[in-house]
Amino acid sequence: MNAASSTQKIRVVVAKPGLDGHDRGAKIIARALRDAGMEVIYTGLHQTPEQIVETVVQEDADAVGLSILSGAHMTLVPKIVELLRAQGIDDVVVTVGGTIPADDIPQLKKLGVAAVFTPGAPTQEIIAFLVSAVGNREPR
Amino acid sequence: MAKTPGGKESTEQQWREAFEAAPERDVSFTTLSGTPVEPLYTEADLPDNTDEQIGLPGQYPYTRGVYPSMYRGRLWTVRQFAGFGSAEETNERFHYLLDHGQTGLSTAFDMPSLMGHDSDSPLSLGEVGREGVAVDTVEDMTTLYKGIDLGEVSVSMTINAPAAIMLAYYVVAAEREGVPPRQLAGTIQADILKEYIAQKEWCFPIDPAMRLIGDMIEWCSQQMPRWHPVSISGYHIREAGSTAAQELAFTLKDGLTYVEQAVERGLDVDDFAPRLSFFFNAQIDFFEEIAKYRAARRIWARELRETFGAKDPKSWLMRFHTQTAGVSLTAQQPLNNVVRTAIEALAGVLGGTQSLHTNSYDEALALPTEDAVRLALRTQQIIADETGVASTIDPLGGSYFVEALTDKIEADAYDYFKKIDELGGMVAAVKVNYPQREIADASYELQQEIDSGRRVVVGVNAYSEGDEQQTTLHRSDPAMERGQVERLNAVRAGRDSAAVEASLVNLREAAAQQRANLMPLLIDCTRTDASEGEIVQALQDVFGKYVESPVF
After folding, report:
1. How far, in Å, CA of A47 to CA of A23, rounded?
2. Cis peptide before B61 (omega within 30 of 0)
3. For the domain that residue B98 is a member of, what is the CATH number?
4. Hey, is the C-beta of B540 within 8 angstroms of any chain A C-beta?
5. Proportion of chain B above pLDDT 70, given as a percent
6. Residues of B in contact with A46 (CB under 8 A)
């Protein structure tokens, strides 16, 4: 596998698990990441955990951003992380964005979620986080 | 400034010189939607044909309100959207709201119900009863409105793709309580076009989905004279990030498309147009919102009278429900949301809304707690009973600024109509992602304004305080999902499965014939206790599913 280097574009899957159709945030993030020079793959709505993991694998992504507003994050995120692990993927940076109550954040991080962005998080902050988190990974 | 008398012109000139000599704050003076705002509006900004354009309340073109007496006669209906967990839990909250002065009910369904999945579908995992109430069968619908006189209380149901199925459930549930369809008053959202545009909860491809809505409108026009079969909704379009003009234009164009379809089916426009109603957002830009509602009434009246030749003045009336903007709420410093909601609600009232939902301050974090819901309800009561704004009709009518903004937003809407017509109408425009792209662009621009600090959001990009105080949040009960699945299984175990299968076979056959109205068949399926997921599946066997190609 290639070593991650600064000359390579960061590949990010922006994914929308669950049944809700609130894709405003996901689409803004996808576009902001694209404008920041990343390769963005947006899955579209209503994705099952299996579909998301398949996209991450197929796209050889460096990171996956999960956008959830429905309140189902404590069901869906663990499932996605588990499926990634089952595929032997442990170097993909997983982030979550949406209406996530503060109490749930430590639990999500314990599962291996690198960052949780709640409403109001500026896009620059998300971009900066991904650049640094992907850059700091062990070379694969 | 031809119509300004001589003296005024020179005093206005003096004002302008004095104004320009003074420093101006270094901010962009635009509305939330990006429309430039002048430092001052004067008589010169009023339309030339002021009387015709503005008129009087209850008179064409209804700029000042749909009724002659407006809130002098009757206040708006307080209609708080509620729904979570099981039908039993939501029923308790309905009783609570009615006991606290609410005058109509508004039902939120959970995601699986909105998407046509049963609670035991693998796709429903983690979503059952979370963002609304779980309804799988007519049994749940019966529980939902238990102890509520459905012949008296008007009920609104926010559901779209499977709306015809939920209406069938409602009709059968009411029938079991002895209330016939003709006595049922309320609204079902059933605005499928805006699902593809903004809300994104669909079951079928666009064309069969439009047919299903058409079947429902037709059936309601014959069987449910007090029912509003479509609530044409801009709310979600705005929440998805549109401008005020886009919200107005896309919503009205959706509405005109339903009218067109019904007329094509051979219905007389005056037989159903009076039952169409609207649902708009109330965002934080106070005057822009008021102008939007006023422009909406004028456009609808004109289009129905002039384009569709409606004769009954009731067909010309754009009646609407308003909800304060969920997207304007911030997770940071949540109590600030109380203030935002109050101002937005006031805009809805000054814009002449027929009913109103005020959001709870904790909704950027989770579903609202009971205390937060009560405060939202009290906000409306303070506006209604303490502020005096309901004492006179359209108190902002004639305001130079408000009238100018009303004209501007109306003109912007007509520009959009023109573009949509050039694409072959709204259905064609939606299929090529036109409104979707316009909304995505607008929402991205706004986000960039906020991120760059050009637009201030208090507590988010200005006046932020670091560590936020934690508010108490509503928590969903994890046992709820299991309970709902058990209830569904119990219904399945107790029904005549041959009858269910026969009703679904009939439904499939009728769906395959373009001319058949599916409503009576959906009611037959309901009577056999067929589940929502089973009915949707039967229709998908014929109609197929919708696949979006997203734009961002």
Report:
1. 12
2. yes
3. 3.20.20.240
4. no
5. 97
6. 115, 123
Residues on chain B touching A23 (C-beta within 8 angstroms): 200, 240, 550
Q: Is A19 exposed, middle or buried (0-12, 13-18, 19+ CB in 10 A)?
A: buried
State the SS3 of B293-316.
HHHHHHHHHHHHHHHCCCCCHHHH
* B160 vs B187: CA distance, rounded Å: 11
- B433 in the Ramachandran plot: left (φ > 0), alpha (ψ -120 to 50) or beta? left
Beta bridge partners of A115: A95
pLDDT given at position A20: 84
Please report the residues numbered 70 through 129 in chain B whose beta carbons come closer than 8 angstroms to any beta carbon of chain A.
111-112, 114-115, 117, 122-127
Nearest chain B CA: its distance from A120 CA (Å) = 6
Domain hosting residue B390, numbered range: 50-451
Separation in Å, CA of A134 to nearest CA in chain B = 23
B142 interface with A at CB cutoff 8 Å: no
Within chain B, which residues score under 70 in pLDDT? 1-6, 466-471, 474, 476
Nearest C-alpha in A relative to B548: A44
- CA B113, B117, B120, B126 torsion: positive or negative? negative
Q: Closest to A123 (Cβ–Cβ): which among B195, B327, B451?
A: B451
Mutate to test the interface with B, among A13, A16, A19 (most CBs of B within 10 A): A19
Q: What is the ipTM of this complex?
A: 0.87
CATH of domain A11-134: 3.40.50.280
Question: What domain count does chain B have?
Answer: 1
Q: What angle do CA B398, B239, A25 make, to 5 degrees?
A: 145
pLDDT at A1: 38
